[in-house]
């Protein structure tokens, strides 16, 4: 039934385009409106058919087909890689904490 309506909808769209090329604007508008209605009915029937197969009792079953995707795992850090605090070495060197200090008189 839906396939037949899709064929009829496609033919109606083709008719609307052909009438537009023939400069029959009013007839093209009527055919285009009919095509919109036919294609809309086809979409409604198709969605009703797919939604009708599901029942509310199946909500308890978890078959793993949900839309939720868990976040991907983080890559493992290589051994001997950079430290977590990338600025600690810079801060220590700038503050002078890593160099030898000589006491000076003030």
Report the radius of gyration as a whole number of Å.
35 Å
Mean pLDDT: 76
Helicity level: 40-55%
State the distance separating the first and last CA atoms.
99 Å
Classify the secondary structure makeup into a structural class.
mainly alpha
Apparent shape: elongated
Describe the main β-sheet briefly: none
Please count the helical segments: 3
- Residue stretches low in confidence (pLDDT < 50, at least 5 long) are none
Order of helices and strands: HHH
The fraction of residues assigned to DSSP E strands is: under 5%
Strand segment tally: 0
Structure description:
The structure is a single chain. The protein is mainly alpha-helical and 106 residues long. It has a domain at 2-49. The protein is built from three helices and no strands. It has helices at 2-21, 25-52, 88-95. The radius of gyration is 35 Å and the shape is elongated.
What is the compact description of this entry?
With 106 residues, this protein is mainly alpha-helical. It has a domain at 2-49. The chain has helices at 2-21, 25-52, 88-95.
Provide the fold topology.
Blueprint: H1 2-21, H2 25-52, H3 88-95
């Amino acid at each position: 039934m839906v396939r037949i309506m899709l064929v009829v909808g496609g033919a109606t769209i083709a008719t609307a385009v052909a009438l537009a090329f023939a400069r029959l604007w009013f007839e093209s508008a009527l055919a285009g409106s009919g095509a919109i209605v036919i294609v809309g009915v086809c979409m409604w029937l198709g969605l009703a058919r797919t939604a009708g197969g599901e029942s509310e009792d199946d909500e308890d079953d978890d078959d793993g087909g949900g839309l939720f995707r868990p976040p991907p795992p983080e890559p493992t850090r290589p051994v001997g890689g950079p430290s977590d605090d990338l600025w600690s070495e810079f801060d220590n060197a700038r503050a002078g904490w890593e160099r030898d200090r000589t006491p000076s008189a003030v």
